[in-house]
């Protein structure tokens, strides 16, 4: 059975899926990192693939930009396609002095200005958390690879272009390591539906310093994030 947004068949997805926002990044990962990858869904151009990584079945699929888009895919992958482990791999903007371009940030938690988790919890706060074992495995893998990772709180913003930029220093003063747009929803959907989730982000921009990665650095650091996510997937 397919859904309104995913035209894969039951069993087409592996238990573990990597999810970038960009469907073309999903295609790039399928073509360059997975073996025997085949396209399993393409509704609205939101491409998804399943193959193997070092012998283990792994899927990769885009989720689009922002919480409403991503939440649809998270929900349907868990409820209809029995996906158990979701690893978002994304880009983020840094606002903290201790976080620099090309760093990897593991989102142990995710704050947000979105109301989605409050809708779930009848307007009460919900601590949107990654699965502890996935965080631990990712940190172990990063240490083995000698990668610089920061672990802490992300901020999932509903607005890429905020009118209230004075919020960024306030976020920084509360220890937010990176601003992106989906992790808080991923953690809320996974908690509600009994799945496990993790977010790993590459710092592509320093919002307060107006710094941005150039094309070469983007490629290198995306490679680090992708292999970190895939080697973490092997441990699950
Ligand atoms: O690089 P991705 O995974 O798309 O993530 C970040 O980039 C997009 C904004 O440019 C948002 O989706 C944000 O979360
Ligand atoms: O959401 C995002 C993603 C990358 N860089 C940003 O500044 N924000």
What report would you give on this structure?
- There is one protein chain.
- By secondary structure, the chain is α/β, with parallel strands linked by helices.
- The chain has a single domain (16-231), classed as 3-Layer(aba) Sandwich (Rossmann fold).
- It is 34% helix and 29% strand.
- The chain has helices at 23-33, 67-79, 116-120, 132-145, 167-173, 183-193, 215-234; strands at residues 16-19, 35-41, 48-53, 56-61, 85-94, 104-112, 149-156, 176-180, 196-206, 211-212.
- Strands 1, 2, 3, 4, 5, 6, 7, 8, 9 and 10 form a 10-stranded mixed beta sheet that branches.
- β3 (48-53) and β4 (56-61) form a beta hairpin.
- α2 (67-79) runs parallel beside α6 (183-193) and α4 (132-145) packs across α7 (215-234).
- Bound molecules: 1-O-phosphono-alpha-D-ribofuranose and uracil.
- Uracil (URA) is lined by residues 91-93, 160, 179-181, 204-205, 207.
Architecture blueprint of SSEs:
Layout: E1 16-19, H1 23-33, E2 35-41, E3 48-53, E4 56-61, H2 67-79, E5 85-94, E6 104-112, H3 116-120, H4 132-145, E7 149-156, H5 167-173, E8 176-180, H6 183-193, E9 196-206, E10 211-212, H7 215-234
Parallel strand pairs: 1-4, 1-5, 5-9, 6-7, 7-8
Antiparallel strand pairs: 2-3, 3-4, 6-9, 9-10
The structure holds 1-O-phosphono-alpha-D-ribofuranose and uracil (URA).
Subunit structure: Homohexamer; trimer of homodimers.
Protein name: Purine nucleoside phosphorylase DeoD-type
Catalytic activity: uridine + phosphate = alpha-D-ribose 1-phosphate + uracil; a purine 2'-deoxy-D-ribonucleoside + phosphate = a purine nucleobase + 2-deoxy-alpha-D-ribose 1-phosphate; a purine D-ribonucleoside + phosphate = a purine nucleobase + alpha-D-ribose 1-phosphate
